[in-house]
Specification:
The protein is mainly alpha-helical. It is built from 9 helices and 2 strands, in the order ααααββααααα. It has one domain.
């Protein structure tokens, strides 16, 4: 019982993360052959938990923690997760590389049911907060149909496509990347004819406005997905 209480504290406790890590004008992609891979790659590696996934039960309404589940080790996983969320653009190459990592990372219940997440799942969620910001209800009210197409699915089908994407955007800042994303989104939405000009203006008008705002301010949209609450292993 005590172990399950500790797991509940780990899975359901919250650590509110900073949405933006300052206003520094950094470049987004610096993963080049011969260069040190950087701390972000180490942090992605640290997302791999040494624990085995807990038994989630038939309806995933609880998580049965075995005595061997190392909560201190899971703390280190959660610390790496939080640091990656706060690292912003510097972590993008490492996150892209980690998209297909099937190793167990953590278990959480963001939507009332417990789910096991792999390293790749968490990499995708962090990457999506940078590149798929347009899919959130908070970005557009109402959101785009079906929250818009997935930029990640369209551009990172395999490791080679990820490397080509990085090479093509070398030296760009995150705000420039986000403008590119919105331009891709506009082109993708316009592949399907709108019923009339008013429908097009309603759907794409906010996208044009956001792209113009990012260009003028040269500031990226901060991550805002409510899932970005890192579970803690201890009750504060």
């Amino acid at each position: 019982m005590k172990a399950n209480t500790r797991l509940a504290a780990q899975l359901l406790g919250t650590a509110i993360l900073a949405c933006a890590a300052g206003n520094r004008p950094t470049t987004v992609l610096a993963s080049e052959p011969g260069r040190p891979r950087g701390k972000a790659f180490e942090l992605v590696e640290m997302l791999a938990s040494p624990n085995m996934p807990p038994n989630l039960g038939a309806k995933r309404g609880f998580a049965d923690l075995k005595p061997s589940y190392d909560l201190k080790a899971q703390d280190r996983v959660n610390s790496a997760w939080q640091e990656l969320v706060e690292t912003r653009e510097d972590a993008i190459p490492a996150l892209i590389e980690g998209l297909n990592d099937k190793r167990y990372c953590t278990t959480a219940a963001p939507y009332s049911m417990y789910v096991d997440y792999t390293v790749g799942d968490i990499c995708r969620k962090i990457l999506a907060s940078r590149l798929e910001f347009y899919r959130s209800f908070d970005a557009f009210r109402p959101p785009l149909p079906e929250k818009g197409p997935s930029y990640i699915d369209a551009h990172f089908k395999d490791p080679d496509s990820g490397r080509k994407w990085i090479e093509a955007r070398k030296g760009k800042a995150l705000w420039e990347i986000q403008v590119d994303v919105l331009e891709w989104l506009i082109a993708d939405e316009r592949r399907h004819p709108f019923r009339n000009i008013y429908t097009e203006a309603r759907v794409l008008g906010p996208v044009y406005y956001l792209a113009d705002h990012i260009r003028r301010t040269k500031e990226p949209v901060p991550p805002f997905d409510p899932f970005f609450i890192v579970p803690k292993s201890r009750v504060p």
